[in-house]
Design goal:
Number of strands: 6
Shape: elongated
Strand order of the largest sheet: 2-1-3-6-4-5
Structural class: alpha/beta
Radius of gyration: 27 Å
Strand content: 5-15%
Order of helices and strands: EEHHHEHEHEHEH
Helix content: 25-40%
Number of helices: 7
Distance between the termini: 14 Å
Largest sheet: 6 strands, mixed
């Protein structure tokens, strides 16, 4: 598969990329499973509800058992009452994780990269760096390359890139080992360094 290359001075060309990563058939169901699993694994058990034993209530019987014409009631903590406990309360230790086999993950990531290549949404650059940790420099660099919203995948991250990109909502810079299905699907364009292409081949072949 041929990928288009781009340079800081505007020169363009092509490079040959490995077919086992950038020329696979698109497997929609597998990609959907990867995205759902990645999002689910990012969730934390931060919600908690109270059952009838944990709510603040009085243990006094609301009214006598017989003779009132109303249904019998023992405590105001009943789940049927307003302010009572939940029947099946959400627990903070709830586990949301989804398991994805290693082979499936590699195949799914290769499927996403292949589809991006077919849709001409991948560009390759020799290297991607900024001289100083300034957001303005990175924003100007991205704009000069012709990108409005882009995911940049480099072979390695340095402090300048990390500090420069964290306040740009339309630009995300990650290392190749942190490439994930959600980021690849989200951004309209993916910019790869040549060394990142080699690392992705090693990871997802």
């Amino acid at each position: 598969m041929e990928l288009k290359t781009i340079a800081s001075n505007g020169a363009a060309g092509t490079m040959q990329a490995p077919d086992n990563v950038f020329a696979r058939d698109f497997n929609q169901s597998l990609v959907h499973q990867l995205v759902i699993a990645y999002q689910a694994n990012a969730r934390i058990g931060s919600r908690a509800q109270k059952d009838r034993g944990a709510v603040n209530h009085s243990t006094k019987k609301p009214w006598r058992q017989k003779g009132t014409g109303r249904a019998r009631a023992g405590m105001t903590s009943s789940p049927l009452w307003r302010g009572g406990g939940k029947i099946f309360p959400a627990s903070p230790d709830e586990n949301f994780s989804h398991k994805v086999n290693r082979k499936m993950y590699r195949a799914g990531m290769a499927s996403i990269l292949s589809q991006l290549a077919r849709e001409d949404r991948i560009r390759v650059v020799d290297e991607f760096k900024v001289e100083h940790p300034k957001t303005k420099l990175l924003a100007q660099k991205v704009k000069s390359m012709g990108f409005d919203e882009v995911l940049v995948i480099t072979d390695e991250m340095d402090s300048n890139l990390t500090l420069s990109s964290r306040n740009l909502h339309h630009v995300q810079v990650i290392a190749a080992q942190h490439a994930n299905p959600v980021a690849l699907v989200r951004y309209p364009t993916v910019l790869l360094t040549k060394r990142a292409v080699a690392k992705l081949e090693e990871m997802f072949k």
